[in-house]
């Protein structure tokens, strides 16, 4: 069966009844446009992952139980710490009042943790604390200035004859010395600050305590304290843009409103930024949506302008452009029927489809023009042009369809759905080209006088020159090209994969900037490993095991609030609370606060500094001699702080007294608050999950009793070696580990495996199809080798340029195979048709059409390279490199290959 003859007849039939064809086209296009409006775009990254894997099922189960796995993180910086704290608290309070926001946490609930601090302390620590209270009661702490003066005198006497270091418990002594050093450092801060501090820096005061996170003021901060973090949780746990966008925008509006009010009050607001997975996905979608609009619009305009500029006839441009555009529109309708949605990957393919689809209209219209120039009537010329080009277009288009079908078989749904959508798109553009173009050409026939120069050159006998390479030159060209392609393919195997998903975002991405800073400057990350347990004992084991592993910087859980011996600790706490309530410490603190720190008392306090320095030096020598070397460092810390205090006071004694009194009052106020909390222990009740504040309960406990433990990675999870170690440790802690790092590793593995599978399969089906469709060894070699050579060059250039694969551009090579296969097929087709032409003459004839086809593809892809989203732009760069490699491989190397395969073609033509 001569399929080309049937294609010619079908084209003639369409040309004879153009209005019926165009009317049917209008109906199909209307239905496709309607389907397009109903075609959802899934923006969640989960839409790109296979949902039938164990990792995905485990992560989805967590989402069902706890809601979102990732918080939006608000970063506040640029002001002194106390001002940052006030601002962060004010912002968190406003966010909590907003609809759609479930939680906004700038710090732990310190009052709650203080009231239950006995649960965070071991029975031994509680016992030591009780002994300390007994010693304090025995010392009869001062209750007014006179008693304070007496106590300072007793301290002076003690310093003159201190007890020996021998017999002291090194552990408790070291802890006490570090606490003393922290208190002295805080005193020095009050003396040397430009302005009196607004309050005590509990973060530093309790930095040496194991329970510091709970007992300090609890702000989530960077290690240097210059950045504070607010963790904001949406009520809607969906990761789709329709849910994320209003949430992120509401948080940003609230922060902007507070900043405006702060400025109106004459104060400088801090710098506020957003990061975390919701912020990343929000930026990602906004950028991709903008880029798709830009790219599709620019591609359509550039292709139309290019076609119109080359053919210089609006009718001819319409004959090429309209069928391609209609086929692309129909492909969206088919996507609605076959896939049911688009993703952030498939939604951007329209620009590539424009460039690819224009090739077929260019090929067919050029042959129709040749037939018209030969003198055939319009209808007959349309049929003859479609028939004569059908084999080449069918071969090239069929190869592209099969290549995309090969992609549809891969494991990664993002690529698989791209393959299905693209295969349907190419098929429908082929149908549109064969059906709509003949009807449109018949209604609006291009004027031949305005069309390009005839494709069919003058007979070879009338031309000067042989139009062929000298045979050694042809052989050298082919050898160099093949060796270069082989080298490039080998180097291509060494191209690394960039695991950093943040590198896909624009260069100026706020979310990426702060996420990287969080990794470098804090123990917090937006990407957190999540463990789940069915009971508290298992959660406690997980938290303890994870806390011992270096791959985790910080482990968050509430297991310390539920120790196995909680009852015994509660009894001890109740006894301690009763004891504190009976000592009357509150009245004594009030008396001391009323008296303040008058100059005589301050001078007595100041006079303790020199002997204290001397005693510390003595203790250091005793520590060395008695084998307690672990006490030397904390003793040195105390000595340094004492020396610094003495220097600061000596420089300005009057200011030193004033600042010291402020510090003294701040300490008394804090002590009063602490004693008030201790008194509440006398009536403490057993803690249950219902007694945990809602902001903590919702994060750590699910309604079905599942308990969550969160572990923040110590290193960048986008480094493959770090990620591998982290994942191994996470699974060693619990095989049920989940969270972004776990899904990210799975995601990366699937993407890389899908790339190799898809590329090899696409290349295989392409070559097999060419062999079956052409059924000629020479024709197959001429069609396939330019593609293989250009692909090898592409990989070599990418490797030499230092370009890395990423989650977006890794699909470039299969796309280049689908896009550039047309060049070799068309050259092979014209080689067989123009038997009386020399190799370079064939290249000249075919090159006009190939160059225009490549120009349309590069016009569309050139727009892609301008995208702000680097994942899209790098894809455009890689494909552009591939096409620019395949083009000279077709126009320069293919003629040399043909000459080697058929040396007589090189001798045809006059001398």
TrEMBL record:
Pfam families attached to this UniProt entry: MMPL
Domain Membrane transport protein MMPL: 212-445, 736-901
Gene Ontology CC: plasma membrane
Protein name: MMPL family protein
Species name: Methylomagnum ishizawai
Recorded topology in the membrane: Multi-pass membrane protein
InterPro entries: MMPL_dom (IPR004869), Mycobact_MmpL (IPR050545)
Principal location class: membrane
Keywords associated with the record: Cell membrane, Membrane, Transmembrane, Transmembrane helix
Transmembrane segments: 20-37, 292-311, 318-338, 344-363, 384-409, 421-444, 468-490, 755-774, 781-801, 807-828, 849-869, 875-897
Gene3D superfamilies in the cross-refs: Multidrug efflux transporter AcrB transmembrane domain (1.20.1640.10)
Top-level taxon: Bacteria
Subcellular location(s) per record: Cell membrane
Matches recorded under PANTHER family: MEMBRANE PROTEIN MJ1562-RELATED, MEMBRANE PROTEIN YDFJ
